[in-house]
Amino acid sequence: MANLSQNQNVVDMKRARQLPTVDSKKLSIFLWGETEWEARQRILSILSNDPIFDKSRRPFLTRTQLYTRGLAMMSRIHELTEQHQWSASDAALAFKVLDEPLPIQLHMAAFEPVLKSQGSPELHAKYAALVAHRAILGCYLQTELAHGTNVAALETTATYLPATREFELHTPTPTAAKWWIGALGRTATHGVVQARLVLPSSRDAGPHLFFVQLRSLEDHRTLPGITVGDIGPKAMGGYAAVDNGFARFERVRIPKEQMLSAFAGVTDEGEYVRPPHAKLSYGGVEVRLSLALESATIAIRYATVRRQGTKGEDGLEQQVITYPSVYHRLLPILARAYVFILLGRNLSTAFTALLARLSTGDTSLLPAMHATTAGLKVLASTAAIADLETARRSMGGHGFSAFAGVGRLYADYVAAATYEGDNFVLDAQVVRAALKAFARAASSTPAQGAELAPNEAYLRWLTDPNPDAGVNAGHSVSTARWGNPRRVVEMLERRAACMVRERAAHAADPDASMDQRVARAVTDAFVAAQVDEVIDGLEGSVGGKEAVVLRKLYTLHLLTAVESGLTDVLSFGLLGEAGAAGDPSRGLRVAIKRLCEELLPEAIGLSDGFGFSDWELDSALGVYDGNAYETLYKMAELEPLNQSEIPDGYERYIKPMLERGQRLASAKL
Ligand SMILES: Cc1cc2nc3c(=O)[nH]c(=O)nc-3n(C[C@H](O)[C@H](O)[C@H](O)COP(=O)(O)OP(=O)(O)OC[C@H]3O[C@@H](n4cnc5c(N)ncnc54)[C@H](O)[C@@H]3O)c2cc1C
Questions:
Q1: Which residue numbers delimit the Acyl-CoA oxidase C-terminal domain (predicted)?
Q2: N or C: which end of the chain has fewer CB within 10 A?
């Protein structure tokens, strides 16, 4: 193969690295924080130099091989944790840096947090250390064959037997089989099972959580009365290394202590003990939070993976990044990725504050956290899924190669729209919370002002005593507003306020897509307010040229958020009417175009700011030095079909077909 190291790709990339005014290292520290950034580098160098984490053979492995490779990696990270005395957050960071769906993630993201937040002190005392050290491996068994979203309709039962102080877990019908459970198929030794609590009085107290051993710790065989299996391959080959499984229980007895009873329980005699706050039984906050962080990480990867070229005016082929139709697609993705990282960090801080309050019995922050995380999960996963596919298509044909690295990310990530709450179902929860806040805001006088949580702050536009600043005052503002992020944030907040008011007015008969649009508007407004704060703080947080460029990048995010909500912005007259001046939204689109033009020379610096190594990206097209074609050749050489010149099927299929054809054509070459 010709030496391509001095090819135009490499030259272009070197040149592109001279254009940005931003210092990518400074951006990395701004995005991740100095402590996490340094920990990332330390862990990255260990993982990327360990053959267990080699990625070169990954595209050619069967599902079973991918599963076994996944087990090897999770076991190795556990060994490394002990060897390097990693903290729990270092170990979690190692899995984040590795960024492959693995069975252990269900232990970390679902099993462990649910046990921690809902297990009794006695259960903790017995199992916390075993769980923390992975002496037992867990999964979370909620979904059944016939029910996922409608948890209240789950069929698995846990009947309390006072005589022996036990629960009897049972799968009463074929459709009650647990299904989709990550790590259940072949890995987990234990699980937390959602089952209907049936009391001796025959009262059905609805779904509750129970801690159950599934497999022997001696030989890993399934325990008596339990039938377990893997549910098979997933769409597009995604999640291959995770053994999503099914399970049936045939009158399996567990001790009374294994009910997760921090907030609900039964007395020895079988009386139900009520939770002090129904929402405390909700165990999904932490799971959903990690998902928002994951979405941000994914969004970053595809934004970084894009290099191609065709002919331009200078005699050389034009770099496709210079086509407006390409950078108008990619720069907003870059902006969203920057926003999602900061949102993830803000959410972590808010979640820590929530846990501190919960530990004192104060549940006041819980409803706002629930609504916020639901909205952000929908926004981040919907945007990331769409952006992954946009990034893949922007790379043309090579984007369809597995070696581009984006198809695999898409296949693994697309299910995020469904798990941890189907996005459409979560939309309805966001709307419900918004309507409650609206009712409170509407019933307070302007003088009193309603007490609004940060995620409801947009509703202040409904009661603003200044009529020029009311919800419908948008048209009085000139199009110069698009250069001022604060005015754009106001626009997004007004849109949310108008839409919630409209939704309340049609409470009994909302239109076809209203809940999706309202939920999006509400979450956009919440995100916009956070972005506004970040922009305000840029001088202090990063300063210099980086602050100037990031202000533009975050403003681009705000403008594209308005653009994607234009139907409603225009419907509510927030941009005024179309008149002699023509399309009232033209100013917005021109502003997006100008910002993209200004940001284009910074694109490589901004994507370098994510700080991903070639090992992490594992993309022929996204290599740091731009040497895409040579890397693509090298990866193609590993293809198993290329290992023998004559394919296995030649004698049996190709040769007879050619000979038959020659006979029929009465000709021989
Ligand atoms: C990769 C993956 C991993 C998973 N891991 C686990 C796991 O470890 N443990 C576990 O317990 N489960 C797991 N699940 C299951 C997952 O939680 C459910 O698939 C999810 O909750 C959606 O439920 P469902 O599949 O029953 O969809 P359904 O509820 O049947 O949804 C079907 C359609 O109906 C719509 N719909 C349903 N109800 C409503 C409603 N009330 N309002 C409006 N629209 C509605 C939905 O929007 C969707 O379009 C996993 C799923 C996947 C894909």
A1: 516-659
A2: C
Q: For the whole model, what pTM was predicted?
A: 0.91
pLDDT at 264: 87
pLDDT reported for residue 317? 64
The yes-or-no verdict on residue 138 having pLDDT over 90 is: yes
For residue 231 and ligand 1, the question of a CB distance below 6 A is answered with no
Place of tokens 């370098």: 608
Alpha-carbon span 533 to 547, nearest angstrom: 13
- The response to whether residue 418 sits with its C-beta less than 6 Å from ligand 1 reads yes
227 is in an annotated binding site: no
- Whole-number Å distance between alpha carbons of 84 and 55: 23
The residue type of 59 is P
Tokens representing 447 are: 């003088």
Give the residue carrying structure tokens 């939920």. 519
Cα–Cα distance, 473 to 485 (Å, whole number): 17
Nearest CA to ligand 1 atom 7: 181
244 close to ligand 1 (CB < 6 Angstrom): yes
| Residue at token pair 């309340």 | 504
**Cα 431 to ligand 1 centroid, rounded to whole Å:** 19
Ligand 1: centre distance to CA 149 (Å): 5
Residue among 384, 97, 400 at smallest CA distance from 236? 400
- 168: annotated active-site residue: no
Ligand 1 lined by 105 (C-beta under 6 Å): no
* Joined tokens for residue 132: 């923390």
Which stretch of 78-87, 156-165, 384-393 has the lowest confidence by average pLDDT? Answer: 384-393
CATH numeric code, 136-281: 2.40.110.10
Cα–Cα dist 660/652, whole Å: 12
Of the listed ranges 214-223, 259-268, 474-483, the least confidently predicted one is 474-483
Q: What atom of ligand 1 comes closest to residue 415's alpha carbon? A: 53
**Residue-wise over 332-345: b if at least 16 C-beta within 10 A, else e?**
bbbbbbbbbbbbbb
Residue nearest to atom 45 of ligand 1 (CA): 425
Distance from C-alpha of 502 to C-alpha of 462, rounded to nearest angstrom: 12
560 annotated as belonging to a binding site for a ligand: no
**Which residue CA neighbors atom 29 of ligand 1 most closely?**
149
Residue 473 tokens read as 């005052």
192 CA → ligand 1 middle, Å: 18
What CATH number was assigned to the domain covering residues 285-305+332-424? 1.20.140.10
CA of 58 to the centre of ligand 1 (A): 29
Predicted local distance difference test score (pLDDT) of residue 67: 98
The reply to whether ligand 1 has any atom less than 6 angstroms from the CB of 246 is: no
Give the pLDDT score at 669: 77
In the chain, domain spans: 136-281, 285-305+332-424, 429-608
Of 477, 365, 370, 469, give the one whose Cα is nearest residue 421: 370
**What is the pLDDT averaged over residues 424-440?**
95
DSSP string, 465-512: S-GGGSTTGGGGS-GGGGG-HHHHHHHHHHHHHHHHHHHHHTTTS--T
239 ligand 1 Cβ < 6 A = yes
Other beta carbons within 10 angstroms of residue 449's beta carbon come to 13
In this prediction, the answer to ipTM > 0.90 reads yes
Residues with Cβ within 8 Å of 182's Cβ and at least 6 positions away in sequence, in order, are 103, 105, 106, 110, 139, 140, 242, 243, 244, 245
Residue 259 is encoded by which pair of tokens?
């009910």
Q: Which residue has the higher pLDDT, 249 or 404?
A: 249
121 burial type by CB count under 10 A (0-12 exposed, 13-18 middle, 19+ buried) = exposed
The one catalytic residue in 100, 112, 144, 420 is 420
